[in-house]
Amino acid sequence: MSKTIQALRGMNDLSPNESPLWQWVEGQLRETFATYGYSEIRSPIIESTDLFKRGVGEATDIVEKEMFTFSRDEEKESFTLRPEGTAGCVRAAIEHGWIYNQEQRLWYIGPMFRYERPQKGRYRQFHQAGVEIFGIPNAEADAELILLTARLWEKLGIRQHVKLQLNSIGGLDVRTQYREALVAFLQNHLDVLKQDPDSERRLTTNPLRILDTKNQALQALLNHAPKLHDFLDEESKAHFARLCTILDDMGVEYEINQKLVRGLDYYNKTVFEWVTDALGSQGTVCGGGRYDGLVAQLGGHASEGVGFAIGLERLVLLVQEINPHIRLPRTVDIYILHSGEGTTSPAFRLAELIRQAFPHLRTMLHTSGGNFKKQFKRADKSGAKLALVLGENEVAEGTVVIKDLFGESEQITVQQCELIAELQQRFSQ
Ligand code: ATP
Ligand code: MG
After folding, report:
1. 9: CB partners within 8 A, 6+ apart
2. Under a CB-based contact definition with an 8 Å cutoff, are residues 120 and 280 in contact?
């Protein structure tokens, strides 16, 4: 026998047992985006490496060490599997003029790739659903995104298990000034900084990310560091105050976390995360913020942006954790059994008739022969609510037997012409 080949590390197969939950979660996402009037976009999974270098930022974890980058010998161009969705979305929006002098509300869903150490809730191929609003500088847009996510958590039954963390990181000037103050402070405490090599390195590359450290001694020290909000400009302060007022009025609770800066370079003003403590250290389910400079930075006609991305693996894990017995739609509603001379074509016809009459029902036709006992076993295993049975007698008489597989009602025989009305009634409850 030849050696079997396995999936790459950190890349998952979704099994037929798991896909109903994923489909349900994705369905709630699509429905929620639609109720706010957002349009879907789809963009390529591979982009030019420069897009992420320029769009995400050279000094970010993603660009420094997490990208899947390759090139073909015959071409000089460098390609990268997209590590996140915003850069590609902005690239497409500029390229096709979707955001030229107009507002846009867009969403996407799909796989992303990052070369990280795989662990629960952290993979090398994972999925994000994201939303971007373009052309609206007001805090109202930020508030709308937060309300949209809150509604989504509500629908998924996890509202009580996620908390909103909010911050404002101002504009570039603010961050430049703050960076200097933070670096000066940390340079006086190099002994503590040295305990966390990642942070030590960031002192020169991306000092604000040090605020994110998990090192406890450093965290304690940072409580005494200069505060970002003391550096905020008037416009950023007013924007943040407006956002907080709307959230207060709408009854959305939040915690202001001055250490929240987010990993990507492109953010300004608002940044936020929805976090949970139900998933260990991979606690951020959704992260987002405002990126007013990104469109111009990628060569477009300046347009404000604000968006977020949800990590679907973590979201699905959380939904499962909170509600392990969630009732998902059946994968099969009706299972059609048939046995005997001349029953095959009538069974196919019946199945097609039902599929045409009830596009939302899932009808499976038994196709592997065998006696009724074996067929009923399959029907039970399928999880179907009803079995429809066709034997030679039924075919001869133009009837069909309906059996409730959960035993809620007696088995009955009806004329085939009455079947549609009967099914209508049985599935309307
Ligand atoms: P983290 O701090 O967990 O590394 P991040 O800041 O890198 O997250 P973003 O780039 O903001 O994450 O992506 C948004 C969301 O995508 C995260 O909150 C998380 O839910 C999810 N996510 C990020 N990286 C991974 C991964 N490697 N595997 C699974 N989900 C991920
Ligand atoms: Mg990361």
Report:
1. 118, 124
2. yes
Q: Which atom of ligand 1 is nearest to the CA of 273?
A: 18
Cα–Cα distance measured from residue 246 to residue 389, given in angstroms and rounded to the nearest whole number: 59
Q: Is the CB of 128 under 6 A from ligand 1?
A: yes
The two structure tokens encoding residue 408: 């809620």
CA distance to 22, 28, 34, 262, per residue, from 316 (Å): 7, 12, 20, 22
d(CA 28, CA 42): 18
For residues 56 and 79, what is the distance between their CA atoms, to the nearest angstrom? 15
140-184 pLDDT, tens digit per residue, is 999 999 999 999 999 999 999 999 999 999 998 899 999 999 999
pTM of the model: 0.92
Give yes or no for residue 287 CB within 6 A of ligand 1.
yes
Q: Is 297 helix (H, G, I), strand (E, B) or coil?
A: helix
| Residue ranges in the chain whose pLDDT is less than 50 | none
- Residues 6+ positions from 55 with CB-CB distance below 8 Å: 86, 87, 90, 91, 266, 294, 297, 298
CA distance 123 to 147: 28
CB atoms within 10 A of CB 360: 7
Q: Give me Rg for the CA atoms of the chain.
A: 28
The response to whether residue 113 sits with its C-beta less than 6 Å from ligand 1 reads no
